[in-house]
Fold each of these.
Amino acid sequence: MSSKYTVNIIGAGISGLATGLYLQMNGFKTEIFEKQSKCGGLCTSWQRGEYTFDGCLHWLLGSYKDSPFYKIWKELIDIDKIEFENHKIRVSIELKKNSINGNKIFCLYTNINQLEEYMTGISPEDIKVIKKFTDSMRQIQKYEVPPLIDDLPFFKSLKQKTSFIKLLPFLFIIYKWKNITNYSFAKKFKSAFLKEAFELLFGGEILPLLVISFPLAFFDKSGAGYPLGGSYKFSKILEEQYISKGGKVNYNSGIKEVITKNNIAQGLILENDKNVFSDFVVSAADWHYTVFNALNGVYINKTIQKLKEQKKLKLFYSVVQVSLGLNLTLNEYPHFFRFPLDEKLISPDGSNYEIFEVHIYNYDKSLAPEGKTVVTMRFYTKNGNHWINLRNSNSEKYKEEKKQFAVKAIDILNAKIEGIKEKIEQIDVATPASYFRYTNNLSGSIQGWLPKNNFFSLSPVNCELPGLKNFYMTGHWIIPGGGLPVAIKTARDISQKICRKSGIRFKTN
């Protein structure tokens, strides 16, 4: 198919690659410009000696055939060739205050029936509350989310209107649960054990309960598995498919500015001052950098200004990740667990941690040599700028603070899993400065914006900017909560918009 229109895309993360792939399928000539030397953006892994440390994927919506996200992934890649690990337990949480028959561990099972039976066994008197929780997930499973309706939300065809009407019961479920947090729901339990467990579902944070019940509805059907091989391997599959369709990725090609003329986006100025022109521009990069640097803050309104000031939405956390390569298998331990600390762990950025989170990759043998494994400890922080500013102003102090924090974290883990300290062969510490340097994400945010308590409220973020034509944004900044589901869904939606504007009927093959 001959290419009538050209599109320049900023960023070779999942959404940038997916947008490019959809547009290539529809006859556009696309190029992606990526500041780093490899694809993936936040969906990445990195090598340290014999070990691969992962910075993103723990699960992927769309790993079973009846899932709407499976249908989207299938449009892009041969997802059937990817091997997934489906965990029986999402997370094991050690409680501090309560126990059942001496056991202080709460297991969040991914099978809804098993979870219901397990919780009822702990507290039969809470059966009504438990069933409210589990039945909400069973109800979610009945609906196709996201709805695969071409040109949503235009609803111009009868098919579209009918599909939307079918979703109304689902929207009612969301309405019922939209303001219920893990803490507010915890108050409904008579069991002190279940009450504390739900308070700790998110490491002590207060978040909408839908943040966990929504993905659990997919976990139950083996629809949110972990792709073995990790994040970068997954990103490469998308990159290879994009290139096979005629797309081009320009690596080590950072963007200085979006070219505009008469309020129409016309191309990009690269960091080497080269101009590359196109009919459309799509940014799959950091929202703040795009709006206020690449476009100099020209195309804004009151809503965008409030977003900048974080009055509409708050930034998603960044993270300090301490990764270890161990000469141990640790097969006897749960793959993902949290436990309380007797004393607070204080980060150099001022964050205090009372709960410790550990991820053991004992289920992905590709990340470490035989008989060995990778362990990561993640510490979420709202103070990412501490690390970013310190790295810029005093690199030696930055390195020392990373080292000291890693030592503290390793000591805590060694007290929990005795003997690991002597088996460490590789240590790596990624900070918000790492995420910022690699992606430009504001303050090192790992998923754009935090979702509101109303989990499914309309996003104040628009994929277009006021007064600017032929320019779109895609990726995890467009819908609060972010993640790979948002990355591919927004890529699909933006590609539809560009096709519609170009008079091309959107297709997916």
Amino acid sequence: MELRDTIKMAAVGLSTNKTRSALTILGIVIGITSIIIVMSMGQSAQKLIVGQVESLGPTNIFIIPGKQPKGFSDGASTIMQDSLKERDIQSLKKKENIPNATEVLAMVFSPAVISYESITYSSMVLGGGSDLANLWDLKMAKGVEISDEDVAQKSSVAILGSKITEELFGLADPIGQKVKVKDRYYRVIGTLEPKGQSPFVNFDETVLMPVSTVQQYVMGIKYYQRVVVVADTVDHIPDVVSDIKAVLRANHDISNSEDDDFFVQTQADLANTIGTITDILTILLGSVAAISLIVGGIGIMNIMFVSVTERTREIGLRKAIGATNKDILRQFLVEAVILTVSGGIVGIILGSLFSFVATIAIKQFAGINFPFSFSYLGAFLGVTVSSIIGFVFGIFPARKAAQKSPIEALRYE
């Protein structure tokens, strides 16, 4: 019997009991749908985060205190390292030390509660210099930006994110008003236009202050948590990175790179790191979702065994008129593959549809420009894996059907 005839016979066999066939593929549909959702949402999240990182500017180079983390467990330990001091900032600003750098910006940050009269709001305080707004591409809604004079004098001034402004002042004008952070009052000199979530902070819920003010009055520290060096061109980034390391190692009396108490990240490094993390998470979540495929495969095997029993007389009749064991084996095997592949295709369609709806919901309710991403790899894996599952879990009931004696099968009631 030709394969085409076998496929027709298998299709007829499945169509005679549509309800059973639909219930049989349900486990496969759920498994493939879950995998498509996980992979599509993972790719969308990766595109969003990497895009935001790249939007910060391709020539920005970040210096982070502490040893470079080797894994997830020690990543948070770098935040409170105190290796970057004022001496380092002054050395990095010297043109002879880093000739291809155009700017050096020092930053600190800390969660804090900001209040106005009886209203309080949990926020993030970000301390920087006059170029802080430009670095993060922040637009002023009202007022003025932080000045170099504010930094030099440790001025008690603040710029409020749009969400904080709305919560504390409503429709009133906040310029000139005083807000309270850690028992000290700060005069509002400006407000920001809505910006939303960045890779590191939600600027709508952030308070900008002079870096020296945050160090002195909010955090009580004398070191910096981040330093950003801006290269003049993308081509000079490797040279700037090399110069940064040389300057800081000289300042910190470090002769061996293994002893570095800082590490340097470029935009490309950040994008690659984020991409690796999201890939790992997608694989892990996809693996969990794939468990349902195994359950679905077992369900298909069980239903196929029931089908073989119910169709015993059909098997005997086909053998009596000349069908071979190979023909019977191939028919039931093709039925199992058709079921699983059909389930895979339905799962791909449903998974893509749910992912698309989820991206719209995120845009609508979270205010994040979450891009939709169709996972071609997920679709390929969906069809391939479902076909393999149909073959693997279908071969045992197909063999049972092929091994039936035609005489005993015809006598079966």
Amino acid sequence: MQEIAPILVSVVIPWRNYDRSIADVLPVIARTVAPLVSDYEIIVIDNGSTDNEFADYHSLVGEGGLSNLQIYRLIQRVEEDTAAWAGVENSLGDYVLVFNPRLEDLSRLGEGLQEITRGRDVVYFSNTARPKSTVLEGLFAPLFRWLFRRVTGIDLALDATRGRLISKRVVSYLLQQPRPGMRYRALPSISGFSKTTLTYSRMLPRDPERNFPGRARAAINLLISNSMAPLRMASSAALLGAAVNVLYSLYVVAILLVKHDVAAGWTTLSLQISGMFFLISLVLFVLTEYLIQVIRWNVNGPSYFLASEATSAVLTRRQKLNVERAHLSSSLVDPVATDV
């Protein structure tokens, strides 16, 4: 039997629209977590349900309901990562577990707790068994994962899983950011934290909330929040457009010098058009570069964050300070003794 860890764990579950399945799964979660830790809390984030649907949650927290359960209602629907961050931000645990019961389970939670209490900052739980996908998802998902890995260096098959156990050190870092919810979404790309991934395979039913348009929108947001590469591509395209217009202007001048039967007004019109597009491309390049800098200033947060600290048990400067104090004390006493 695994030893109980003397920690408080917060379990965050983003959920949309009350149904019987959430009432059935919460007791299972409680029975799974309780034997592994000294204390726990379960936080359900209701992601924009209607008034009637939210009223059904009260039966879970009333007399005879589940213990250690909190339910927060978001005023409007947001992305799942944003809803998850709302739960993390309102959690009290030493460690925070975020997962979606529709797509993940807690079969390796015990190993994850061992990893995190040994000093890991983030433990990912990745379900390698994927529900049956549509034709469009089957075509575009591998292509997007390849593109994402090329742009950010992150393997979405493992690192971007939503099931994760994070330490308070990571939460403290995120809270110092101007947009902590966005940085939480980009957590796999943040270096400096000790991470590991625990995989398992369990076929779970398909989540009806995750249709192709929603997954495509989430994929684009994930790419944009993890990398400046899209903006860099736009900046490079604008600079390339400016260069092409300069070359075209030189071509127009060369034609004017070589040929004598050029149509009247062609040279002037061509130079005018190429000059206008050159200026537009140059303005787009400057604006894109400025936007990149503004995003860095406003999203990156503090210039540094101390994740941990280790200090020598013996500090020579303290010993020297003691010697100086002793020397100073004797110098103050000696003149008095001489006068006497």
Amino acid sequence: MKLFETLGELGHEQLVFFHEPHSHLKCIIAIHSTLLGPAIGGLRMWPYAAEEDALRDVLRLSQRMTYATAIAGLDFGGGKAVLIGDPERDKSEALFRSLGRRIDALGGRYVTLEDVGTTTCDMDHVHQETECVVGVRGARGDPSPHTALGTFQGIRACLRRRFGHEDVGRVSFAVQGAGHLGHHLVRLLRAEGAKVFVTDINDERVEEVVAESGAEAVPMAQIYDTDAQVFSPCAMGGVINEDTVLRLRCQIVAGGANNQLESNECATELERRGILYAPDYAINSGGLVNTALELSGHDAANSKRRVMATYDVLTRIFALAERDGLATWQAADRVAEQRIDAVSRLRLPYAR
């Protein structure tokens, strides 16, 4: 990877590498934009096979976070942190406190929150060293229920667009991922009487979801082949690629995972096959909205109202796509870019 060339192409402001041998800290923080305010984005912990994979992930995720905050109407920019390590084995108080000190040294330019592989307990340790963290215990906590609620509202908008109704109970779903987010989404879907297939790399998680909700377990490799009308990715990114996109039998892709598409070519293939795609950063911003508004001092009732507005965001995207002959992801990008351009002219880049 040509690092500075890539940063220029993606438009990043800052990329920071942190290494502390005693606590085994290996972390990359990417600040994509502070034009709308301090960069906010999750802290992901994952056992990346190669350091370049972690770098590629943090650059892509931070860029999309800029679009997510913009399209959700938040006065925050986009950032992301990736912590290289196995979340099942490598966590410690020292690790997260060490990272908290590094985040604090950024002077308020980056605010972190829970993401894949991290928990509210981990955020508590980060919080011991910096105020630049949200989603700690005793505040709004785990953002997953809010991400699931926003995703659920976005799914309703998709059903209206594709089927002309919002009756979730009349539709079947294939949910990929039974972690915090997937588990909460399955609960919401099953509460409406929907048929739900679920899978995860962790069999115990699947068993727990199945026992609680009555969903049907599906092997990981077969989730793309179900006849569910909605495929809902709620785990890692890049799951819709040149191989899996051809296997999908659904009519809608709408889930809470980040970077669901491996490439824009996959989005084109979805369009060609008549599959409605809900742009990931537009539908999965509920947790981000809730935690960002926590920082701004909004109460829980107002935050919930803003999360529920995911329905309106998706409806606007679909209307723009139809009016201008765009793919849904292009319409979402246009909405985000227009707000960034308009609002950023009102202020200088964020500084503490």
